Amino acid sequence: MKKLLLLLLITTASFSQKIYKGNVSDQGTPIPGVSVCVVNTSRCTFTDFNGNYSIEVKYGDKLRISYLGMKTQIITIGANMKLEGDGSVAPIVSDDYLENLKKPKDSIKATRSSGNYYFDITDYFYNLYNQTLMKISRDNSGVYNAKTYHQYSKAAFQVNQEFVYSTPMRLPKYQNQFAQGRSLNGDLTYQSPQTNEIFSWGPNVSALQYSANPSEYYPQGDIINRNSSSGNPLQLFNSNSFLQNTQDNKLSFSAQIESPKRNTFKIDFGYKTGNTVIPTSRNNEITTSLKYSRTLSYNSTIDAILSYNDFENNFSNSNFGINKAIFANAVTPIHFDNHFASTLSNGLQRSYAANENNPYYLIENNLDQNKSKTISFNFNHIYSYDHYSNTFNTSFQSSEIRNRSGQGFYLAAINTPNFDKRSEGFRSFSVSDVLRRNFGYMKFIESKIDFRFQQRDLDRTFYSSFIVPSDIPSNGSIHDKIDVLQKRFEILYNINGAYYFSNALGSNEEFILKAGSNLNYSSTVNNNLLFNYSGAAEMKRLFNTSLNFTASHTFTQTEPSLQNNNLNFNSLQYQVSQFKQLRNNLELITPKNAIPTKENITNLTLSYRAAYYWNFYVEYYYKNVQDLYAPVSNLNSFTWSPDVNYKQNGLEFEIEKQTERSRDFNYGFNLNFTYYKNKVTSLNNNQTRIPFAGFADVNKNYIVGQPLGVLVGSGYLRDQNQNVIVDNDGFPMVDPQQKILGDPNPDFVVGFFNSFRYKDFSLNLSFDWSKGGEIWNGTEQTLNYYGKSQLTGSQRDVVNYVFNGVTPSGDLNTKTVSFYDSNLPVEQNRWVRYGTSGVAEDAVQDASYFRLNSINLAYTSDYGIFRNKLMFTISVFMNNVFVVAKSKTAFSNNAMFGSIDTSGLEYFNSPMMKSFGSSLTIKF
Prior knowledge:
By secondary structure, the chain is mostly beta strands.
């Protein structure tokens, strides 16, 4: 241990406490940062960089003097103003000491030197290590003051960069043998683009070659029958190569400044850019926010947040453009290169048939774009005193959404080009106040009043009657215009409370009763008033264990939102065969004096905590919903009508094992099981069926007595014993009446999350398993019709096949057929005979799947001389690692137009993506 010399000075004051001033040195070298504390008090100080210090004391106090590497010394302040053990060391006089001696004798009195002492200075570096000591200063009176970390303004920064690379998966399988054409006079004949042949039911591509005559359709030379073994064979194209891999980059930055009074100012900024699977597509998004929090007093705080979001997309699918491009690419014959050119010299579209589109022409003439901007402001004031607290909030949001979409010149199936310009402004403003009175643990009563105002301003113009292509987008006569202004004013009053009592049964049980009710006024609801209520009883520590039980019931009435535009009901105007004509031109306007949707929900919950790290949870619920809104067809349009009543009950079960942070290696998991069943109990206005998503001939429905969203479409004609009836040609007959084909709701869903941790490394794996339910795979049916699917490539030569079924007279069917007889018109083969969509019954597939949803490997570490100066987390991850499913291409979670309402429908959907990515987060 080193020997330290201490020179202590004392100045008497007009009160009982004295100010000690001293110096700490090591063989004449000052020691800064020595901790000097009055034992059993919070009074502490540190020596400055010259070894000087000062501290208030009174007689009898003990000073604790400590320094890293030295033995801690305790010094007692004696009545004679001298230190105990004094006199063994000669004084060392500092400049500060000499200056003090020049002052009047009645203002300062010097002690003798303090002597030799050994002490530990660990506390100094402990404080430095924890960022408590920042500065020591001396004022004009000679008093030294230390400032800790918490007495300074602090700045914190966070930067995050994320990169995601995705590739399409579970794509359709295409045949790569047969060319554009059909059977003519018993021969499989190639048909050139000029013939406008849409089918790929022609000859084997090995029987064809390029001629010496190039054309705009085939720059390698027109396609002819092979006349020599040395002819140039056809170049084949993989339809899946049209879809591009996607890249998403996201950069975010956050900075926060905190004052000594813990007032904070925070700024967040984020920028994200990426693309979709469609070539040339691009989207950009900017988000930023400012937050200020201030402590007004011990029991009063305020915070304010200002946020802004700006998003744009140059291929938004607002008019089904993405689905149409995927369709056009998929049905193109394997030998036609769409990418070579999209326009002919005469200005018309270059495609393999005038009745079909070139996907690149759709991209180059794309009119589907979206831009949106949102700004919001939120202010809160929280005040608490004794048992009372009050929270005042006001918020404002303004958003502007601008869409443009349309269908230009020379598009297949579009005879009258059109253009839509849509602008939607949304404003909302609210003021609320919550007053709460606490009576003890889980005993309170709370009252809330909320004033809200919403406004939706829709302006949509439909342009048509264009003369020349240059007239698009808006130089045409106005075909139709929608200009709707909707306003809603609401006053909501809520009162709720809870009461707690224990030992009711004498075994340390805890009981919590909760109840609440709302009375709401709305300017747009029928009768203007809405009444809601809820109640719950929670029993904790049953049987003196960690077993808890909760029973609750809630009744709510809610109005529909002011905006109800989507693609789901617009597509209901069209048959599947009219897919290329799809147009998003209808709006759902919330009716005035709306009838509220009513929900009654009962929950029974049981939870148990074992060995601190294990949690078990099971819940049963029953829900009854009345007057759910749905799009109802009405004279070639749709109304938004409260016509659906249904009930649903379900069971949820969860097991969780939490990680133990005290170990170097640990494993945790969460296993959850969800089971539910629902059924439409009735439809208002004497209806028995309401289609709400899909096409006119294949759709999802609300049907009395059936689960929500059952699939309806064409099926085979059957007799009373459910035998398929086969026609005189030997092929099954189609029932003229549509029928229920399947239920898209799964029987149950299981999620399994795993977390492995070793020191600073973590590995997370997430699995999910969905059992049951059906999905309609219309993509596969249409590819069969065109002759592009792998199935038609492998089975078109099947002969002498007998379909199971009976004849119209009831006899067992024995007639043999060929799937594709070249002596018969192509319209009579196995797949073309049933039309573009085929028989929907054949396209219904089991939606069950098992998926490794994600893998994430991360490393987190502190870095720097002092901990918490800088921390970083780097991770690599993979999403949709693999999927095992009975359907090889369709996936129930991959909705048709990107809406949850169309889940269970597959028709040239944007494909499922397998993603690889990395993320780096730095905090300092």
